[in-house]
Fold this protein.
Amino acid sequence: MTEARPQEARQEAWLRGPIEGVPPHLMPVFHSFAMVREDLAYYTAGLTTEDVWRRTGSLPPLGFHLRHIAHSVDRLVTYLCGGQLSDAQIATLKQEAEPGATLAELLEDIDEKLGDAERRIRTIEPGMLNEPRYIGKKRLPSTVLGILVHAAEHTQRHLGQAITTAKLAREHK
């Protein structure tokens, strides 16, 4: 078993106050994305490509969670902006669990997708929060606020799963 990593005194993003240039109504999503970047860098440090794609029991590998974080945010922000998924986004969805990418490539993809999402989310004005938005081919109803909240909470859900999976990968080296 690998030695446990020391816990550093790390303050979560939302406890650091406002992020310069981010409107208050969007701040929770930006804090969520900052936490994703920081926690993944911390908890995945030193893992190999083999570690990233190793399965523990029936659990999906860490690589799946990393890809899913990046691309689910991209899909949700597409809906947030009033669009529908492209063929490329649908194809990517079907390939999220396919092994191969390195940890560095996966983390870079997350950073790029979160950065793109942040640029697109910045266009959301406070008066838009209750505007209707529709999800998928079935056009399931939501709102701008509903998608913003879901983007933050869904990303955190998979961050937690990624952290747990990274810990398991480290223990099973």
